[in-house]
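haha ok so turns out i had the wrong file open the whole time. this is the CORRECT one, sorry everyone. sequence first:
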Amino acid sequence: MNNTLLAGGSKPKLASMDLSSSQALVASLTYVEVTGSTNVDLAAKGGEDLTVLVAGAQTAGKGRAGREWSSPVGASLSVSILLKPKLASADSLAWLPLLAGAAMTRAVRRLGAAATLKWPNDVLVNERKLCGVLSELVDGQTVIVGAGLNLEQQQDELPIPNATSLALEGLTVSLPEALHAYLAEFVPLYKSFVAAGGDPEAGLRSLAIELCSTIGQDVRAIMPGDSEVVGQAIDIDSAGRLLIAVPGENTLYAVGAGDIVHLRHN
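then structure:
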């Protein structure tokens, strides 16, 4: 096992962090003080399965649909994991974002916040976004899963009005604590998923449904091309798609990609 910890920059508080407990869970782990995007850097660097890159700050991170976001040094956890799973079908790769979202949801619960999973991979606390996940296919069987967890930001430091941080939820959590909580959930889930050949019915699908607060909600699904479906989210199917029942229609809509808005009715 090749575990590497690199720290740069001028902040001794972050540079002297002990990440050994997280290193022990993965193939290799590299820490950098500041980078543009951990996903981009890890895609360029490459590595073996479960290679991890962690940054104290990102200046050009991207979320879903290419939305840009950044984080000040030490205020959030920015982590990317390179995966090379050997699965029975490449279609099973679609479950990796849900797997990461489920792992982060359980990690945040472990840290003390009542988190839920918003399909497919946002982590919410009190319906406010605490964490986002972005998965990118590098080649046919290599996936990079990036996550950004808000740790210390105050409300005026967050990128969107309906976001939150662990600090705003009354919790003081260090980057090493958050990283270990996430990897301690992610790695066993991932290894079990791979051992099952990528079969979500071996436990991942039921876990995602259990954690997912989107199920049972009235939602608006905004899909690529700006088409919309409005109805009630009722299930996650075996392909990881959100199933939406539209009032007055007998057909369920299966949404594989898009923005989901939880509708609130007064």
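The first helix runs from residue 12 to 15.
again sry for the mixup
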